[in-house]
UniProtKB/TrEMBL annotation:
All residue ranges annotated as the PH domain in the record: 1-61
Membrane-spanning residues: none
Pfam families according to UniProt: Exo_endo_phos2
SUPFAM superfamilies (UniProt xref): DNase I-like (SSF56219), PH domain-like (SSF50729)
InterPro entries documented for this protein: Endo/exonu/phosph_ase_sf (IPR036691), IP5 (IPR046985), IPPc (IPR000300), PH-like_dom_sf (IPR011993), PH_domain (IPR001849)
UniProt-recorded name of the protein: Inositol 5-phosphatase
Superkingdom of the source species: Eukaryota
Length: 706
């Protein structure tokens, strides 16, 4: 594509210098320097590179010199000046210090007149959307540029005018560039222009790809879906948006974003018993807390709202907001009948949050009614994924298997992010809390006696959830803090603090908070406790505070040509894939492993193996489009284990310790819908090879021999 999208339009270069860098997969970068300015052009092949150089010199009316340069390049095609390396699928764009354009390949369910390009203006802090077919427009602009090359620049400038893009247009040739929605005065029709403060939210496919869903303003009812020319272009555009939003924060806030940031996360669960909570909620909030994120999950919250509250939901939200104060705002809410989940964030953190999503799954009567089930909220802070799941599982001691079924159904029904990964596999931090309803399997009298004597460990020995966790039947891979307190269920609804004799339910630890992280992601639980002073329900609320660390939010150096990166798996084996050891069918499944990640293009996969303990030999090398070691250490590579097109399970490996001088050993549990489906183990290594390595591997080929 041929585009000059700068404020000055077609640039009349004087005393300019051009540097061409040969990048991977026949891509070229053309660096043009003119006095104090620097411009960068991405060319996807050698012919495209020649066209750009020719066009540049045409503007100086130096076509003979341009042809001479091209002939010299043709003679020395294997010895281009300043050879450098970079990743493949680089975006094709023309940029200066202030303006960058991004082409949109297509728009979901859109007509021909749909937006086809985003233009980011760094100075004005705006994103402009252009309608129309850019390819057609580009051809017209290129055709015009060749005609004007024969005219003396200084003389012809007097008879020209500047359009809205800064492109210089001759009055007598206005008709030549009219096309579709483009008009004479504008050259191209803007769909809309948004400021950085109005950019509300976006959602991307977490496993790479080129799709991006954008909600431009908070008043928009839905997201708009755009398909970029590649995943690299998408990530670059996201990076520019985040830079715009960050630039409005001020110097102090911006410097804070560029450093590692420790955050505190507060989680709360309470079965309200369909009774209003106390108006004074201050006891729940830690004193001098400095909490950054609050997540409140409540069950059986269908109570009569108090006077002037308007609704039960307003009553609950106002109660929380009063306790938190004015420094916090509601980020997101999600309800399933009387199951509610609300996330509040410190207002200063809001600019770093994106890709917000909500999901619900009912597991009640007929697996449709929402009196039981789960609600989820997910989002990203910088590049770190968070997910909160509040749930209410089946009650009664004897319904142990139904609770396990509820758990798996919630996992299957919460469709976040990548469709092949369930909710337990794709977020850096997953918090699962609520009335899980797991009981202590003891007679009522004995349970009450042990609880009153603070024989907590004796009670936990008979706790159903502890037994299920050890057996790996539910919440496989989750963690829970140490319980040092009495059961939170079932109490009389008064101030006596006595266990209820109604139906003689054994005192149990029904209200729990669990968490799960991706490999090598650190978290520290600071507290885990109940609040026994709340007497409006037969349950007691439980809270937990966690400390996490967010890595520096550094710009994605996608166009860095100083180095090239490759991710290798020298060894990759499978064990018990499909989890068929306890099955009568012991036949080997034909399986293959597909790789993907946020910074690599999807589609790479191994050969097919039909063995119970497969050893893979044809393992593809992965080429991330980010070469920064700081960023790669924060990444994970995900495995999709498939039987042809059927997904068996998924796992992941962290690259945190793989960026060293030698491969590291790893093990990855393969799970599907929360169940163990086997294991992958092997070695992984991230390397920054030299040019000679790529020539030896025949990765840099001559286009003529392609």
């Amino acid at each position: 594509m041929f585009e000059f999208l700068t404020k000055e339009g077609f640039i009349y270069l004087e005393d300019c210098s051009i540097t061409v860098r040969n990048v991977h997969k026949f891509h070229f970068e053309i660096h043009v320097r003119d006095k104090n300015r620097r411009y960068l052009i991405q060319a996807l092949d050698k012919k495209d590179m020649y066209d750009w150089i020719e066009a540049i010199f045409l503007h100086r009316d130096q076509i003979y010199f341009a042809r001479h340069i091209l002939s010299e390049f043709s003679k020395k095609e294997n010895n281009l000046p300043e050879l450098g390396l970079n990743s493949f699928n680089l975006p094709k764009l023309f940029q200066d210090d202030d303006i960058i354009s991004f082409e949109v390949e297509r728009v979901y369910k859109a007509k021909k007149n749909a937006p086809r390009c985003f233009i980011v203006d760094r100075k004005k802090k705006t994103v402009s959307i252009i309608k129309g077919d850019l390819k057609t427009r580009a051809k017209n602009v290129k055709s015009y540029s060749k005609k004007q090359a024969k005219v003396q620049n200084k003389k012809s400038n007097k008879n020209k005018k500047i359009n809205s893009l800064g492109v210089t247009v001759p009055k007598e040739n206005e008709k030549d560039i009219q096309k579709g929605n483009q008009n004479v005065e504008q050259g191209v029709k803007y769909h809309k222009v948004y400021s950085s403060s109005s950019l509300f939210a976006y959602q991307r496919t977490v496993g790479g790809g080129n799709k991006l869903r954008i909600k431009w303003e908070s008043t928009d009812l839905d997201f708009y879906t755009y398909y970029f020319t590649s995943g690299v272009v998408r990530e670059r555009f996201i990076n520019e948006i985040e830079d715009l939003k960050t630039s409005t924060l001020g110097k102090r806030a911006t410097l804070a974003i560029l450093k590692p940031q420790k955050l505190k996360v507060f989680t709360f669960t309470w079965n309200l018993g369909d009774e209003p909570p106390p108006e004074n909620f201050d006891e729940v909030i830690p004193k001098d807390h400095k909490i950054d994120l609050f997540a409140f999950a409540v069950q059986e919250s269908d109570y009569q709202q108090r006077e002037l509250m308007g609704s039960t939901e307003n009553d609950w939200l106002i109660t929380i907001s009063k306790a938190l104060g004015t420094d916090y705002i509601l980020l997101c809410k999600n309800n399933l009948l009387s199951i509610r989940l609300n996330v509040f964030v410190r207002e200063s953190l809001l600019s770093q949050i994106h890709t917000i999503d909500t999901q619900t799954e009912a597991t009640g009567l007929g697996h449709v009614i929402g009196n039981k089930g789960g609600v989820g909220i997910s989002f990203y802070i910088r590049d770190i994924g968070f997910c909160f799941v509040g749930c209410h599982l089946a009650a009664r001691t004897e319904r142990l298997l139904i609770r396990a079924e509820n758990y798996r159904e919630i996992i299957s029904g919460l469709h976040f992010g990548v469709s092949e990964l369930d909710v337990t596999q794709q977020f850096h931090y997953l918090f699962w809390f609520g009335d899980l309803n797991y009981r202590v399997e003891l007679p009522y009298d004995l349970g009450v006696k042990l609880a009153k004597k603070n024989k907590i460990q004796n009670l936990l020995m008979h706790d159903q959830l502890n037994k299920e966790l050890k057996a790996g039947r539910v919440f496989e891979g989750f963690q829970e803090g140490e319980i040092k307190w009495k059961p939170t269920y079932r109490y009389d609804r008064d101030n006596s603090g006595e266990f209820s004799k109604t139906k003689f339910r054994t005192p149990s630890f029904c209200d729990r908070i669990l968490w799960k992280c991706l490999p090598e992601v650190k978290i520290k639980q600071l507290s885990y406790k109940p609040h026994f002073d709340f007497n409006t329900s037969d349950h007691k609320p439980v809270t937990s505070v966690f400390q996490i660390e967010i890595p520096p939010w550094k710009s994605l150096d996608i166009l860095d040509t100083r180095s090239f990166c490759v991710i290798e798996f020298p060894l990759l084996k499978g064990s018990n894939i499909g989890n068929k050891t306890n099955s009568s069918d012991q036949s080997a499944l034909p399986i293959s492993i597909e790789f993907f990640g946020n910074m690599i293009e999807p589609g790479s996969k191994t050969e097919i193996k039909s063995q119970n303990e497969p050893i893979f030999k044809e393992i593809p090398k992965l080429y991330p489009f980010v070469t920064s070691k700081i960023l790669l250490k924060q990444q994970h590579v995900f495995f999709l284990v498939k039987n042809k097109t059927t997904l068996i399970g998924a796992g992941s490996v962290a690259l945190k310790h793989a960026c060293k001088n030698k491969p590291i050993y790893f093990e990855s549990i393969i799970r599907r819908k929360g169940l163990y489906m086997g294991k992958l183990f092997g070695e992984v290594h991230v390397r920054w090879p030299t040019l000679e390595w790529f020539e030896k591997k025949n990765l840099l080929k001559n286009p003529k021999n392609k």
